Amino acid sequence: MSLITQAFICLRRQRFLWSRYHFSRGLAGLGTRSSSPPSSTQPKRKLGDILADVVKTTGPISVAAYMRQCLTNPESGYYIKKDPFGTEGDFITSPEISQMFGELVAIWCITEWIAQRRPQRIRLIELGPGRGTLMRDMLKAFQSFAPFKNTIVDICLVEASPTLRTTQHGTLCDSATTETEDGFSSVTRYGIPIKWYINLKEVPTDVTSFIIAHEFFDALPIHQFEHTQNGWREIMIDYSVPQEKTALSLPGQTRSFDEDPKFHLTVLPYYTASSKVGPESSPRYKSLPVKSKIEISPESWDVAKELALRISEQRTPKAPTGSGAALVIDYGPAETIPVDTLRAIKGHHFVSPFEEPGTADLSADVDFTALTLVAEQEGHVAVHGAVEQGDWLHALGIGARATVLASQQSTLEGKDRIAKEYHRLVERSGGAMGKIYKVMAFTPRGTPTPVGFGGGVMDQGDDDVE
Ligand code: SAH
């Protein structure tokens, strides 16, 4: 099929898709909330005090261990106990900015489903669904595409936080939640069974998966290393009176060398198992000169491999290289290795990652090249991107969608709001979201290049691929 024909089909379908929407936003009166996190009457020890004791007992801990405790410690982790999103919270994400984001992700899933000859049974999986806003907007969009909607067997959300699981349930369901052997389950307002898991590995693999990970990988723990004269050494977190020579600074952190012990980064003078293995694991790191620093996230590699295997192992005679897709949207460099990117955000400002552990969002840039290498080599899929969010959204038709939405607004304020949302999502200047956020997709090898990554809508027929 020629490029022009593809483009034509793509545009025609986009218009067709948009015109069939009924865009009333907002599910007023979000449903029942059950399974609240357990409450305790015991005064809790602060996470910072617990971590300080751990360091005093065992010596410095890795950045990964620190991040994991700060974010997902079952008692005091940042995500475990609060809803951090929105203007009242600590940060805002693309799905919370505009419904357009979820709609375009939904369109992408449909185009990919068409390109893969319409698998007849699919599972939607979302990793780290936050408030459930992205899934809500996707499900609303799917209502206009019965052939796709009718293939959704269930929705599986992978969420570590009981608080956010309750919020997601309120966003997506009217029915109560039941606790099952392997997690929690309910039914969405659209009648689709929905289940919650803590780990992707627990999600069944019996049908084709369409998996979305928006701002999930940046929350996964990273290790930091420095290439010293004596070889690679891990940069760890110490709790002591910082020495000028060893204490490193971070974004949002003011270096002070008073007499009080505090958390700070320090380069270990000796090697550890991870400093032997991590930087040796890829030629990308091994070749770096002395004084180089790197961040690596083996937990992210593990998830990328799991995503890719889910796709490539879903093979049938009609889908010999696998079935399904994964869409990863996050911030980080498309090619280079992240360096010194650990950051903490509270109340929409950068703060020190060491200020009151567990009370600020910690994150680090995603190394998209590392994810690509793992997915291609160990997961046997085709990887597309990472491309900039602004380009991807434009390829999916955000311009046309914003125009339609604005035309439906009766007030100037309404039209202005849509314009602002559009610009916020696609703007590329000065480190804006359209540029720093990247989009990457995993698809079965040999299937057409997806929309948004250079491909058009490819209708391959509907051979009832199982
Ligand atoms: N995708 C949402 C939320 C992003 S914030 C949005 O864009 O609005 C990160 C999400 O991942 C939260 O829901 C958080 O609770 C979840 N999360 C963080 N670490 C996790 C882990 N290790 N396992 C499962 N979920 C995790």
Helix proportion range:
25-40%
The computed structural class is alpha+beta
Which descriptor suits the 3D outline? globular
**Bound small-molecule species:** S-adenosyl-L-homocysteine
Short description:
It is built from 17 helices and 17 strands.
Spell out the blueprint of helices and strands.
Layout: H1 3-19, H2 47-58, E1 61-62, H3 63-72, H4 78-81, H5 94-97, H6 99-115, E2 122-127, H7 133-142, H8 146-149, E3 152-158, H9 162-172, E4 178-180, E5 183-187, E6 193-197, E7 208-214, E8 223-228, E9 231-240, E10 262-267, H10 273-277, H11 283-286, E11 293-296, H12 298-312, E12 324-331, E13 343-346, E14 349-351, E15 361-363, H13 368-379, E16 381-388, H14 389-396, H15 398-407, H16 412-426, H17 433-436, E17 437-444
Parallel strand pairs: 2-3, 2-7, 3-6, 7-12
Antiparallel strand pairs: 1-9, 4-5, 5-6, 8-9, 8-11, 9-10, 12-17, 13-14, 13-15, 16-17
Helix pairs in contact: 6-7, 12-13, 15-16
S-adenosyl-L-homocysteine binds near residues 95 and 129.
